[in-house]
Specification:
248 residues, mainly alpha, Four Helix Bundle (Hemerythrin (Met), subunit A), two-stranded antiparallel sheet, disordered C terminus
């Protein structure tokens, strides 16, 4: 503290003590940002199961914000306490990284800082919410896309749910050529249970003796794209004349 005179040290000590008293008083008055109270205590409800998901999301956001504010206050109070102790040992006002003197002007603005300007970024926290480990990548816990198997996974479960409707619309879809609301959910055109389109509508009996065609949407697109020849298809007698008049 050689670069600080007695008056400056006294002024900084008073400022630190005042901020410490203020933080401790706020902690006592607001019950740690209300973290000691549960949602049931605040609403008077026995159960929140019937609450709207949006209301529960708001409450979760507020709880997360309260935790962040409390963590910030606790860290600030810890830094103030360490600064007051360093005044007694004569190490106050020196950067804990390079031991260079911290200018009085910086200490006056932030009396509990342990860093000089060059090392001020040491306080940056890179901690991320644990939920991000599950959100990134999407379906990362249950997706089998990168595995050597094609079993039913989390992505398939979501596709089934989304096919019944979601909040997406053609205006928000990645593909701008959307003609149907069924085409806006995740990988709606993914082939399920087959690799080539022909495998989805060409079938046989249990013993492979009889071959028949299931005329589904994939079959219709297959024919519209001229990928198949209707003349090679064995049709029931009642349909032969309409599909292939040249054989009548």
């Amino acid at each position: 503290m050689d670069h600080l005179n007695e008056r400056q040290i006294h002024q900084l000590a008073e400022q630190l003590q005042h901020e410490k008293d203020t933080l401790e008083r706020l902690d006592a008055e607001n019950s740690e940002f209300g973290l000691s109270e549960s949602l049931r205590d605040m609403t008077g409800e026995l159960s929140t199961n019937d609450n709207h998901p949006g209301d529960m999301a708001t409450e979760m956001y507020e709880r997360g914000k309260d935790y962040a504010l409390q963590e910030h206050r606790d860290h600030q109070l810890e830094q103030i306490t360490l600064s007051l102790e360093s005044m007694k040992t004569g190490t106050y006002g020196k950067c804990v990284i390079c031991s260079s003197p911290i200018p009085y002007e910086r200490l006056e603005a932030l009396p509990y800082t342990p860093y000089c300007i060059e090392h001020a970024d040491q306080d940056i926290s890179y901690n991320r919410p644990i939920e991000e480990e599950f959100l990134q990548p999407p379906f990362g816990r249950t997706s089998l896309d990168g595995a050597d198997q094609t079993g039913f996974d989390g992505e398939d479960a979501w596709q089934i749910v989304a096919s019944w409707g979601n909040s997406n619309s053609p205006a928000l879809a990645e593909d701008r050529q959307i003609e149907d609301y069924d085409d806006v959910y995740l990988e709606e055109d993914e082939r399920e249970g087959y690799v080539e389109p022909i495998e989805s509508f060409l079938a046989t009996d249990l013993y492979g003796d009889q071959v028949f065609v299931v005329r589904n949407s994939t079959y219709n697109r297959y024919m519209e794209n001229n990928e198949g020849d209707r003349e090679l298809e064995v049709l029931p007698p009642e349909e032969e004349d309409t599909v292939n008049p040249s054989l009548s």
